[in-house]
Amino acid sequence: MIAPVTLLWYACDLRTGLILEELRSLRPSGAIGRRLGTSTTANVDLVLAGAPASWEGATIPGRTMLVAVDAAMDLPVWAGLVLTRTGGTAENLSLGLATPQAYLDRRYTGAYSVAVAIDQAVILTGLGANLLVNAPNFIFDAPAAGVTLDSYAVLDGDDKTILSTWQEIMGQGGIEYTIDPVWQDAAHTTVQLVIRIRPQIGSQSATPEAVFDLPGNISDYALTESYEAGKGATDVQANGNGQGATRLVSAVHTATTLNAAGYPEWVYRFTPAAGLDDPVQLDAHAAEALTQMSTGANTWTVTAVASQSPRVGSDWGLGDSVRLQIATSPRHPNGADMVARAYGWDLDAAANKVTPILIEGS
Questions:
Q1: How far apart are the C-alpha atoms of 348 and 37, rounded to whole Å?
Q2: Which H helix or E strand runs over 289?
Q3: Half-sphere exposure in the Cβ direction for 16 (13 Å, CA)
Q4: 189 DSSP assignment
Q5: H/E run at residue 120
Q6: Fewest CB within 10 A of the end CB: N or C in the chain?
Q7: Which helix (H) or strand (E) holds 27?
Q8: What is the SS3 string spanning 205-268?
Q9: Which of 37, 32, 80 has its CA nearest to residue 59?
Q10: Where are any strands of DSSP class E within 274-350?
Q11: Other C-beta atoms lying within 10 Å of the C-beta of residue 333
């Protein structure tokens, strides 16, 4: 699709999602972006001379959110909760925003437990029940994931946030989540925040329709291959609660095939989010970490011309497979043709740039 990417910015009531004002004088300080399963932040400036008369009520921290809509597609692509607002003698009002995932770390689970094999989607929605009470305009989209946990328990006195418990479960593999801003009504007066829970977010395909190519829509790219601590390991052990001899630990999970092929031993020990006291879950965390880390991390960062590229939010999005085709470059003189998964993106509409962040082999 060859069309300029123009973003319309709307201020919405955080509880209801109702549009309060269009902010035509708002300008992002840089790119806006999203990441799979975690929050991102952005800073935007509102030129007060061009702001609506009710700008103050439309940008109250903790009470409002700002939503970016792709004008050509009439599609919400990004939402940010207003957390900070700074103004004075400057002609601009500076607003600090965070994507809705940040709210999950500001609400607590309360007491919750399951003692038999329960679908992970059911557990996540149970742990996140408070997200539907005195909260932003959330709704769950969480069909059965087909992956179960034998047990899970948290007490109110554990002071665990919803985000921390979700991270514990997702760290074992088998389930993911994201939060998408969507139109709630046909008249497009209200934005809803849909919490999607799936075994894998997005659409995975060996032949995706979204293609980034060089020459073509790509202006530059970089492949980062890393075996740094936390990104590569052949021996992994997960630690639980306790200290010294009383601390629970998982079995050591080893990439024996890589060791036999000549890799030395690279050891990684870690404590899953908030710690755990279930040996079975610790082993699951260690096994999943080894799967992700044994061959290191290969991340492709692509900068493409937004107006000439597959449209983020409509042609592709978080978790989707995209194709990367390189005819030739100094790093790949013989070219490269591969499918990778988008775990994040950045969009700078003013600069006509879109940056998909792709994980190879995920």
A1: 21
A2: helix 279-293
A3: 8
A4: -
A5: helix 120-127
A6: N
A7: strand 26-28
A8: CCCCCCEEEECCCEEEEEEEEECCCCCCCCEEEEECCCCHHHCCECCCEECHHHHHHCCCCCEE
A9: 80
A10: 297-305, 321-326, 336-348
A11: 9
pLDDT in tens, the chain (362 residues): 567 899 999 999 999 999 999 999 999 999 999 999 899 999 999 999 999 999 999 999 999 999 999 999 999 999 999 999 999 999 999 999 999 999 999 999 999 999 888 999 999 999 999 999 999 999 999 999 998 888 889 999 999 999 999 988 888 777 999 999 999 999 999 999 999 999 999 999 999 999 999 999 999 999 999 999 989 999 999 998 777 777 888 999 999 999 999 999 999 998 886 556 678 888 888 998 999 899 898 999 999 999 999 999 999 999 999 999 999 999 999 999 999 999 999 999 999 999 999 988 65
Question: Helix or strand or coil: residue 124?
Answer: helix
Nearest residue to 188 via CA among 23, 17, 352: 17
What torsion do the CA atoms of 294, 337, 219, 210 make, to the nearest 10 degrees?
A: -100
What tokens appear for 99 in the block?
Answer: 């994507």
Placement of tokens 């806006």 in the chain: 32
| Angstrom distance (rounded) from CA 111 to CA 119 | 18
Exposure string (b/e) for 130-148, b if CB count within 10 Å is 16 or more?
A: ebeeeebbbebebeebeeb
Dihedral sign for Cα atoms in the order 211, 216, 217, 222: positive
Spatial CA neighbour of 289 closest among 318, 250, 260? 250
Question: How long is the chain?
Answer: 362
Give the helix, strand, coil percentages of the chain, each rounded to 5. 20, 40, 40
